[in-house]
Amino acid sequence: MISLTRRDFLKGGWSLLSTLRIHRRLNLLSLMFSAMVALFIIAGGGAIHYRLHQEHGASHARLAAAELAGKAGQLLRMGLSLTDFLAFDEVCEGTTANNPLLLSAAVYDTQCRLLYGSEAGDGVPPELPCGEVIRTLQEGKGTMEQVVLHAITGTDNTLFGFAAVSVNRGAILRNTLRSVFRLAAAGILMLAGVLIIQNRLFRRIVEEPLAELVRTADSIGSLSMAQIASLRAKKGPDDIGRVYGALEQLLSRIFEARAELLKQNENLESVVRMRTEQLEESNALLAKDIERRKALERELRSMANKDPLTGLLNRRSLDIRLDRLLSEAGIQKQELAVLYIDLDFFKTINDTLGHETGDRLLVLVAGRLRAQVRKSDPVARIGGDEFIIVLPGLPAAPFASRLAEKIILALSETFNIDGNDLGISPSIGISLFPGDGRDPKSLLKNADLAMYMAKSRGRNTYCFFSPETSGEEDRRRPAKRN
Amino acid sequence: MALPAFSAAAPFRILIVNSYSSDWIWVREQTDGFKAGLGGVDAEFRTVDMDVKNQTDESVGAAAQRARELIEGWGPHLVFVTDDAAQAEVTVHFVNGPIPFVFSGVNKTPGDLGLSGAPNVTGVFEREHFAGTLRLLREIWPGEIRRIAVVTDDDPTWKGVRQRIGESVAACEDLGLESVEWIQPESFEEFKTVMSRLEQTVDAVGLLGIFRFAADGGGFTDYETVLRWVTENSSLPDFSFWDTRVERGTLCALTVSGTEQGLAAGRMARRILLEKIPPSDIPPEASSKGRPMISLARAKKLGIRIRSGLLLGSTVLSGFSWDQ
């Protein structure tokens, strides 16, 4: 729920965060604009500086020319003639020696012919164009294309010649470049300063409040508006303040929706909880019912397969088991014996002691029979006092006779029922597979005939089926049954 | 040492005693420099000129007596004494006294003047720039200068100068002098004879003491006459140490400045008067700066051309004093 709320908030606030990218664009734009301004200033400043250095050089040249003319005039006033100056070349040299803005100095006579000049006199020609010199001086300019002139006059202001000083244009250019470099360095420093200030202002005005908004967004997971108090404190009339206000309204609406959602969710959860309890109760009842039905089914199935009195197999189950055992014995080439046991004079016990005692005796007999065989050997009660035992997988005849003897022995011991010792004996008929029959019906029939043979031999004994005696016994058997 | 009492409203009283005349530019430079060094101190000045170059011994003695009486009667707060002669006639009489004395332009040593250890006396010694002057001469003169002669009169002032020149020659090996001949003619005629002889024996002549050459008619030959004769008759380059000589035809000098000495002496006086520092705590100084001075007129007479740079850096005199 909270993540959904926060996602909604971030969806609305993402546009605010993108302002950071706008900041970078603003920086780039500002940098480009400032660089253009700086370039313009540097170019303009360079031109101005070049002009200023030119003026500066010309000013130095004017002073130097005046100084040189003054020195020449001083020598003239000493009574020397302009052509008599000794080593005045040195004076010319000295005029420009310590001034890098000046290239050379020279003195010309009134015919504009070179009289004295510094050795590095590339800047002063051997002759000056007299007409231009006179015109320049008359106009009071004192500056020709390459040299600055000053008239050399005597005490009575008589013109004796000209002092000329040439400006070192290379030095002026170098000075200009130096100035431009300083200007550029100052511009770069100023630009860097402006960017730093702009960054700091932007950070304080935009980035930090936005970062706070982001932190607020991160803290939306908190459960109450009271924990987002810093946001309220930032409200103001400016753009950021309006953003804060809008965000606060957004948060308020989100929290209202969230509270509504929580309430609805709580109701839904109580309904589901109640329905779940009901369903669990129904499931428990259904499980009990199923269990009861399963028990009933087990009981019914047991009643269908077993003798209800003794718990032994009934006739139906015996037929099914015997049929399956015969199939297996046939496939595996094994022998199988069927013992048909009938209790002697059982009808007398029923008649004298009652059916209930008879039934209890049958139960006890069943237990003793069960005790004489393997657990896997089927033991069934197929009539009132008639029992069937099947012995599969053994040498049929010896094991059947041994079992018959054990049964006779087991039943020879009296049964105590309600303080009465009752004695009973069995008559056992034995039929063998495959010699005496290959199906249940014939095997049971032949075992029944052999049982009657045992009865005819005095009871409490056993007999194997013999085809020679089967006809007589077959005739006597129905009478006995009746 | 207690200074004479004076009120704050009253100006200082300063007596100036000159060995020479106040009209002479040398003396004028010193006194002007002295007043400039005082820096506007309100003072009343009185001056006594002994004028030893022009006056008889009796007149000089009378001037000295007048100066001493003024010191005792007028009671100056300070006495400024220029050049050597007045030191011997005036200053030595007040050694160890209460009145401070400040001198300038003195060539003799304090011992020679009897001022050694005087607690109330200090000042500026004039020290001529022999080596500098000789180097200036070598820049001007195209030929070699290895042998020189120095001419003096019998004034004892030159004793100290001679001693210092000897020390300079010994100390400055780069001067490269082979010989320094000292000549002291008695008369102007002897001077002429000597100068004619020197044309053959030396490369340059130093004109040091030229004030006391006996004249034919008695007295001393005026030093301007002596120097004019030199410019007209000597082909040797000559040198001296004072601007007054160059004005009168001596070829060149790295001059000792009267203004400089007077200025330094004035500053000493100011400290004594205003800061109450006793003269014994202000050690005497020696003049240090020299001003190159060239007589271009003399150079023309000698037929030499001087480098433009040297002329522009020096005080150049294009004519002789007697032509103006």
Description:
The complex is a heterodimer of chains A (482) and B (324). In chain A, strand 8 and strand 9 (420-422) form a beta hairpin. In chain A, helix 10 crosses helix 11 (396-412) and helix 12 (440-456) packs across helix 13. In chain A, strands 6-7-5-10-11 form a five-stranded mixed β-sheet, with helices on both faces. In chain A, strands 2-1-4-3 form a four-stranded antiparallel β-sheet, sandwiched between helices. A two-stranded antiparallel sheet of chain A has the order 8-9. Mean pLDDT of chain A is 83; it is low at 478-482. Chain A has helices at 2-17, 19-77, 88-97, 130-138, 169-218, 229-233, 239-305, 315-332, 346-353, 355-372, 396-412, 440-456, 467-481; strands at residues 102-109, 114-117, 147-153, 159-167, 336-343, 379-381, 386-392, 415-417, 420-422, 426-433, 462-464. Chain A folds into three domains: 10-221, PAS domain (Beta-Lactamase, 2-Layer Sandwich); 222-305; 315-481, Alpha-Beta Plaits. Chain A is built from 13 helices and eleven strands. By secondary structure, chain A is an alpha+beta fold. Chain B is an alpha/beta fold. Chain B folds into two domains: 12-127 and 257-286, Rossmann fold (3-Layer(aba) Sandwich); 130-256 and 290-323, Response regulator (Rossmann fold). In chain B, strands 7-6-8-9-10-12-13 form a seven-stranded mixed β-sheet. Chain B has a six-stranded parallel β-sheet with strand order 2-1-3-4-5-11, with helices on both faces. Chain B is globular. The termini of chain B are far apart. The model of chain B is unreliable at 1-9 (pLDDT under 50). Classes of the chains: A alpha+beta (482), B alpha/beta (324). The A-B interface holds A 71, 74-75, 77-80, 84-88, 90-91, 94 and B 296-297, 300, 305-309, 311-312, 316, 318-319.
Nutshell version of this structure?
Chain B: This is ABC-type uncharacterized transport system substrate-binding protein. The complex is a heterodimer of chains A (482) and B (324). Chain A is α+β, with helices and mostly antiparallel strands.
